[in-house]
Design a protein that fits this description.
By secondary structure, this protein is mainly alpha-helical. The protein has 2 domains: 198 residues, Alpha-lytic protease prodomain-like; 84 residues, 2-Layer Sandwich (Alpha-Beta Plaits). The chain has 9 helices and 3 strands. Strands 1-2-3 form a 3-stranded mixed sheet. The longest helix has 30 residues.
């Protein structure tokens, strides 16, 4: 429930920022502020995607999704990156046009004041979302947090652009908007690659694999292992493997070893959701390879 609450707070903040930037953008005629309005507008839509993705991901497995719904968070994150990229392209185009055809900016002091308020709001909500996403392991909240983090930099760029415009250099506003677009492109690429990795069944990191192998090595009755495979289900990791045990072990003892190792991996490797172990006789498997 904490993830859903965090996602709802993100929506509330984005509604406020979007409305404020739209109003000031219309009053000042600043392309930088209007770029930030679009940035916040798509952040608002992205926050909605995050909320839906988190809500859906928390639903238990069913007949159509026996492994659960965690990947809905990653799908949500991918949709967010697409929106950011589209916005960045439009902002960059408008900023370039304004560089060739500069326009006067009205009430730049008001624009600077509103952007400073937005800067403070971005900092508080970004920190909050980063903390919750780290605690809960939520990729959708992580993507949402990075939206606000990028807003910190892009809003700063707009403020500098408005100051330049106030000092008689109107092109500073367009340059600030281009910096906003650059941050948005970088953000969309990083988040998009991370979301795609999970949706395409990217495996565990080298560090996670090393921890799993170390657990296997500590069990004296395991004589070897193979077919170790991992993949992500949302923010969680699924592991399956074959272990080799003494041929003379009873079925119940072999099963107990597998259960013990499954429990240790789930407890000692952060983020592991499920472990499936297939037990095989050591001598028989070695004989097949000879």
């Amino acid at each position: 429930m904490e993830k859903l609450k965090a996602a709802s707070y993100s929506i509330y903040v984005n509604v406020f920022l979007t409305a404020a930037k739209l109003a000031v953008g219309l009053l000042t005629g600043s392309i930088g502020i209007f770029a930030e309005f679009l940035h916040s507008l798509f952040d608002l839509i992205a926050s909605g995607f995050a909320y839906i993705g988190i809500y859906k991901a928390q639903q238990p497995p069913d007949e159509t999704h026996p492994y659960g719904h965690e990947k809905f968070e990653n799908l949500s994150s991918l949709l967010q990156t697409a929106l950011i990229a589209i916005t960045a392209i439009w902002v960059a185009y408008e900023a370039v046009m304004r560089l060739y055809h500069p326009q006067a900016i009205e009430s730049s002091e008001l624009g600077i004041a509103v952007m400073l308020i937005a800067l403070a709001a971005d900092w508080f909500i970004a920190k909050f979302l980063h903390d919750v996403s780290k605690k809960e392991g939520s990729v959708a909240l992580e993507a949402d947090a990075y939206h606000f983090t990028s807003d910190l930099w892009s809003t700063s760029a707009v403020i500098i652009g408005l100051v330049c415009a106030n000092l008689g250099f109107p092109q500073g506003d367009s340059i600030g908007a281009l910096i906003v677009a650059a941050f948005m492109v970088r953000l969309s690429y990083n988040l998009g690659m991370k979301a795609l990795g999970v949706l395409l069944d990217k495996g565990a990191t080298d560090d996670e694999i090393e921890k799993i192998v170390a657990i296997l090595a500590k069990e004296p009755q395991i004589k070897g292992y193979h077919k170790l495979r991992t993949r992500h289900m949302g923010s969680k990791l699924v592991v399956d493997m074959h272990i080799l045990v003494d041929d003379n072990l009873s079925l119940s003892k072999a099963h107990a070893i597998a259960n013990k190792v499954e429990g240790r991996i789930t407890q000692q490797v952060p983020g592991v959701k499920d472990v499936t172990i297939h037990v095989e006789p050591f001598e028989e498997e070695v004989g097949k390879k000879e």
